[in-house]
Amino acid sequence: MAKEFPPYERHVFICMNERESGHPRGDCKSKGAEGVLLRFKELVAQKKLKPRIRAQKSGCLDTCELGVSVVVYPEAVWYKQVSPADVDEIVESHLVNGVPVERLRAFPTTPGDSAKLSPIGNA
Ligand code: FES
User: Fold this and answer.
1) Coil/strand/helix, residue 78
2) Which 8-state DSSP code applies to residue 66?
3) What's the confidence (pLDDT) of residue 122?
4) For residue 87, what is the enclosing H or E element?
5) Mind listing the domains of the chain with CATH numbers?
6) Is the pLDDT of residue 48 over 70?
């Protein structure tokens, strides 16, 4: 039986790219991306958010200087310098309740944001 689409209400990508040491752009893995990814996965499981929310690793998101870089779709909200300690707030505020964490945003709010943001179903 085919899955219904869209399969996820929110889809989180955490950059896990790794570069050779000394590379001028740096990389998210050396800045702690693995801990960020693990905390997202842990909370999604603990809060029983599957399959409405999926958090997964990605390759380079091309915002390396802002890493650890995370992006949440469908709103396309980008987060910068995310640490494992920030993940609980992103999950509860943004992923569950539809309110992005402003202090961690990499780019300013866009005019269409509020129309796209809402709590997930049955939150
Ligand atoms: S290395 Fe993470 S955005 Fe490029």
Assistant:
1) strand
2) G
3) 54
4) helix 84-89
5) 10-116 (3.40.30.10)
6) yes
Whole-model pTM?
0.89
Cβ–ligand 1 contact at 15 (below 6 Å):
yes
* pLDDT, position 110: 64
Query: Among residues of the chain, what percentage have pLDDT more than 90?
Result: 79
Give the span between the Cα atoms of 113 and 116, in whole angstroms.
5
Q: How far apart are CA 13 and CA 67, in angstroms?
A: 12
Tokens of 90: 């992103």
**Sheet bearing 70-73, strands edge to edge:** 53-58, 10-15, 70-73, 77-79
What ranges in the chain are assigned the alpha helix state H? Answer: 33-46, 84-89, 113-116
Q: What is the pLDDT of residue 120?
A: 79
Residue 108 banded pLDDT, cuts 50, 70, 90:
confident
What would the two tokens of residue 29 be?
A: 């893995």
By most ligand atoms within 8 Å of CB, the mutation choice from 58, 61, 68, 81 for ligand 1 is 61
